[in-house]
Design the sequence.
């Protein structure tokens, strides 16, 4: 299933996949997508930014947690079902143990005001990580057949309808998504 | 906070729990965190398997903990299991819930990914990926914005806004370690600098 040029780095083994996804999952406090981009695109360079965005589009559109979906798409790309298992196991194994321990600790310390303010501080940073990752991914739209200006209009419309007008994301995904797909389909005619 | 219920679960209760999560899984576009209100209605209001406090704590912990946000379903299961018996049942229920919410959608995405890889030359497949790209990027930026505003909704919260803005610039302009940024944010929050 590998369609990339031979010079591009690929995961060397199932263990390589498992460890990479464990690494990014354990760092991803408050959401793992920023860490997926950093690990898969910038550090390991298994995917170009364009490939990452396109796989993310599939992962975000299908049912299921988008980050889990993306791990399965990437794992399957190199090692079929075994790759999908290795990548998704990496995402889940250690974080599941950790979260159950945190659940126990929360019963003890959850009432401390410092826990609340620390979470607020972390949330503010996590928001910055997500926004920065989204802005970085914008550069991947350069080669999009829709054209840069159409892409930016869609991004702006999506942002306003979700962040400002508070539309439900599923409505935006279906409505704007259908528009984007139709326009792209027409542009690709030649 | 009201006290946790003592649950006596029969096989039909377990089956109801599994069934509910399997059904949610196939409908959970964007992840199960987006269905938190539906899960709250089912687990807390309808079935009384969890208290309000247990449910909310599970969501808060999962958002703050490392790993994908779907792990809050494992915590819900952990709490249900604890209410139904103890640590061992808690652990088993956590894993049962996680598998139930993940298995259907993971199988679906696996076969979808296989089909898309096999048909990636099709015009419709290309148009889908390219047409969806700007939409999902906008949703990502918007979710970051919503996360920022959920904590900081007043002008006096400007230190939090500043933290988000500086983080965004640092990640865009440098290859700074994002994990340490999170640690710094938590520390500043804990010592009260951001209030």
Sequence:
């Amino acid at each position: 299933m590998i369609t990339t040029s031979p010079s591009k780095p690929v995961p060397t083994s199932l263990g390589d996949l498992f460890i990479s996804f464990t690494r990014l999952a354990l760092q991803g406090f408050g959401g793992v997508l920023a860490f997926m981009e950093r690990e898969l695109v910038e550090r390991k360079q298994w995917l170009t930014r364009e490939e990452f965005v396109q796989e993310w589009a599939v992962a975000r559109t299908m049912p299921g947690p988008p980050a889990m979906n993306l791990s399965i798409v990437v794992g399957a790309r190199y090692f079929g079902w075994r790759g999908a298992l290795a990548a998704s196991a990496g995402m889940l194994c250690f974080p599941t143990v950790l979260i159950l321990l945190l659940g126990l600790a929360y019963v003890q310390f959850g009432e401390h005001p410092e826990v609340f303010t620390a979470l607020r501080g972390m949330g503010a940073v996590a928001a910055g990580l997500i926004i920065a990752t989204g802005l970085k991914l914008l550069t991947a739209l350069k080669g999009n057949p829709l054209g840069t200006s159409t892409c930016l209009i869609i991004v702006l419309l999506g942002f306003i309808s979700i962040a400002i007008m508070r539309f439900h994301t599923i409505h935006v995904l279906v409505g704007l998504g259908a528009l984007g797909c139709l326009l792209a389909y027409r542009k690709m005619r030649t | 906070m009201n006290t946790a219920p003592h649950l006596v679960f029969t096989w039909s209760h377990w089956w109801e729990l599994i069934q509910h999560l399997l059904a949610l899984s196939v409908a959970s576009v964007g992840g199960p965190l987006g269905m938190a209100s539906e899960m709250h209605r089912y687990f807390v209001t309808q079935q009384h398997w969890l208290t309000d406090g247990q449910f909310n704590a599970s969501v808060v912990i999962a958002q703050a903990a490392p790993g994908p946000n779907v792990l809050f379903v494992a915590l819900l299961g952990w709490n249900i299991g604890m209410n139904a018996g103890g640590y061992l049942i808690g652990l088993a229920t956590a894993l049962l819930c996680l598998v139930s919410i993940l298995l259907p959608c993971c199988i679906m995405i696996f076969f979808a990914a296989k089909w898309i890889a096999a048909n990636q030359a099709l015009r419709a497949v290309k148009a889908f990926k390219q047409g969806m790209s700007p939409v999902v990027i906008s949703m990502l930026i918007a979710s970051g914005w919503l996360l920022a505003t959920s904590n900081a909704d007043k002008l006096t919260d400007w230190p939090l806004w500043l933290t988000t803005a500086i983080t965004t610039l640092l990640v865009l302009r440098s290859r700074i370690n994002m994990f340490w940024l999170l640690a710094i944010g938590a520390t500043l929050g804990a010592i009260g600098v951001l209030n």
About this structure: Chain A is about 75% helix and 0% strand. Chain A has a mean pLDDT of 92. The radius of gyration of chain A is 19 Å. Chain A touches chain B through 104 residues (CB under 8 Å).
